[in-house]
Amino acid sequence: MTQMGQAIFQVGLDFITHFNMELIAGRSYSRDFPSDSTSALVVNEAAAKQYGYANPAEIVGKKFDQWGRSGEVIGVVKDFNFISLHRNIEPLTLPFEASASRYLSIKVKPENVGQTVAEVEQIWKKVAPHRPFLYSFLNEDFDKQYQADFRFRKIFSAFSILAILIASLGLFGLANYTAEIRTKEIGIRKVLGAEVSSIVALLSKDFIKLVLVAIVIATPLAWYVMNKWLDGFAYQVEIGWWVYPLAGIVAIVVAMATISSQAIRAAMLNPVDSLKSE
């Protein structure tokens, strides 16, 4: 095969079976083949495609030469995410190199994890007392890759709630001011037989128009910003079209809830008191 660059994970004999990797062509490393430790190689689908094999099975049996080690490709594992989901799955080779293994991976049951770790530590101190017992959980190691995204979510959520509260306070104040300056108009309309509902609608419609204009302006901006943010992930969800009208409906409901209290209070005033107001 032509020499090309790809990530290299030096693994132990049982690495592929231990992590339940799906073998889609060839075989894994085996104790039945002693030469596997010196002249065999397992690659992922992306590596097979990198060498021009659309069908991964076609690379099995091909010669390789890597870091002074040569032999035959014996198997292909299904692509899996070994780096952040921000990036596409890259070509990967998994040479069997027991002496280079730096980590011991152990599967444990979720029950009594603390006790299990303590027992493993005792065994470790007996086997390798000259080396410190250091451990981590694989799921926690993966989570660390996305801590920046988790922080961004928290910050974005906090500022979103703050923005909604500030906007609601602004609408509340504006609705109160509008009701005050239109007190006499409201009194006259009530004297002429206007219903409370029609007065509430009268006071609310101008605000709803402003909210609708804001939705029209914000929707394309939100679509652009969210898609630009998702571009940072190689694997991403699609934002359904229904999300934007739903957000608009929520904005209208919040605006109506904020305005209605002032509008109803103004509409319920005694028309005599309204007409006396300055």
Which terms would index this structure?
6 strands, 3 domains, 278 residues
Per-chain topology:
Elements: E1 7-8, H1 15-18, E2 23-26, H2 36-39, E3 40-44, H3 45-50, E4 63-66, E5 69-77, E6 92-95, H4 113-127, H5 138-144, H6 147-181, H7 183-191, H8 196-230, H9 243-267, H10 271-276
Parallel strand pairs: 1-6, 3-5
Antiparallel strand pairs: 2-5, 3-6, 4-5
Helix pairs in contact: 6-9, 8-9
Helix content: 40-55%
Overall geometry: elongated
Radius of gyration: 33 Å
The number of helical runs is 10
Mean pLDDT: 85
Briefly note the structural class of the backbone.
alpha/beta
Number of domains: 3
The total of beta strands comes to 6
Strand content: 5-15%
Order of helices and strands: EHEHEHEEEHHHHHHH
| Largest sheet descriptor | 6 strands, mixed
> Span from first to last CA?
92 Å
List segments where confidence is low: pLDDT < 50 over at least 5 consecutive residues: none
